[in-house]
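Sample A.
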Amino acid sequence: MPILRIGIVVAVGNFIDTRGAIKSMKAIWSITWGNPYTNPPDDFPEPPEPITVQWNKGDDTRHPAEFIEFVDKYDGYCIGWASVNEKPRKYWGEETKKRVRLGRLTKRIQKKYGLFAEEELKREIERYKKIGYL
């Protein structure tokens, strides 16, 4: 995995999916003032606009050259990057949540009570239904 130097912090870019295959990634490079308690001096120019890049397997993931030149020239600025996730987040529906909760509850009760699990499971299911969890 490529190592990306961000100011004085080192971050590892994670491009690996669940199967271990390398995939592409979209990111935004930006320059910000490094100290949150101060502002840049008045004689410093505005930093360059953020750049959006698409990284694929084997691409060069180093900082943009113009950003490095700017940060080297004007002390106090930091180069940063953030990944961009274009896929909307998926949420579980109520039925799926209830099914998973019931399955986890059943496993937990079976492990804890063994032979007496049926009685305890009925009690717990009723308790969960009262609070609207199942």
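Sample B, a different protein:
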Amino acid sequence: MIKKFFFVTTLVVINYLSVSAQVTPLEKTTHEVALIAVDLLNKKLADSLYSMTGESLRKKLSPTAWRTSFKDVVFPLLPMRGLAFQRSKDSLSQYRIKGTVPLMMYFSIDRFGKISNMSFQMVKKEPGSSEMSAEEKRTDLVARKMIRLINEKKTDSTYLLAGENSRKGITPDAWKKIMENSIYPLTPFADFVFLGNEGRINKYRSGKSQFWYQSIKMIE
């Protein structure tokens, strides 16, 4: 008897992370300045960025020290992309950002809207496809296909890909409403990152959203 393996992939949940949104006016203003600062960094305009700093930061770093610091420490990390707000404490905003390595960026502004703190810290590299098991890789292939179909808003195709177990619990019309009202407003999903696997469920992150995918193996 020939054994056939079917992998039924279920979209378990998509959870929008409320901690990843700026709430207070200061956090929003800080974020706007941070975006400008990162843009200047990527253009390697150290002097222009220094002109945005406040008195407290200038007391710590002269223009020459600032240029040297960015040339030797920061520029090798460029380009930076995907600035994602994490949290704020005591007026200091914390971000995740992708440079040549994953980074945390700490950023704050003074009462005049000038930069009072801008520093970086490398973080532990997240798991990649090379670190996946064979089962995790099979699930990953279908999960990424699902995300592509969601980004393309192909509702019928996503419903078929969801698998028989999922379709037993939700009608096509109900699936369509979920997609149109809850999922599509969050698209497009980019930088889809594998975080790990727990209980045969692959976990991912894309910007402010987290995903859980489950692969169920069936044998005939």
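Observation for Sample B: The longest strand covers residues 5-16.
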